[in-house]
Amino acid sequence: MRIPDLIPISCEPDYHTDTIGTHAGGLFFGGVCRGWPVAAYEEVGEWPWRDEHDEPMPGPWFAILHLFDHDGRHLSSEIGPFADGAEADQALQRMLACLQDVEYGDIAVRLFRVDAHDCVFGLIDETDRAEDGDGYVEYYPNQIGFYEPWDGSYDT
Prior knowledge:
Layout: E1 7-9, E2 20-23, E3 26-34, H1 38-44, E4 61-68, E5 74-82, H2 85-97, E6 103-104, E7 107-109, E8 112-116, E9 119-125, E10 136-140, E11 144-147
Antiparallel strand pairs: 1-7, 2-3, 2-6, 3-4, 4-5, 8-9, 9-10, 10-11
């Protein structure tokens, strides 16, 4: 099955998609997560962040707020790196507080990609990586997978 133009995303309280919904200007997808340096890996072929055993490790924590129009087209992203998850969570709450008429709930957005802080952020077609060849979309850097039946459910 081909990937739909709009990818439905279910709002799940206390889980990966608990800060998505609508606001006066359109749709939003917020979150806090560790970043994996995918952009840097694609460019130089190795992970820039390594632990004391030279093993790849995630980069900094990020507070992320993607904004979309009412038709699910990506408008902008605010992405800030932080030393720890608590700082990133506080930053996300400040970002969300700037939105007017916020209602948490399901959304549907189009594919998009933002490269920032040596990481890839966005909802990206990864069909070529799917074992069965069916349509597959992944939300980065959280590594949340969306696929048929395209009902908003996802795998982590």
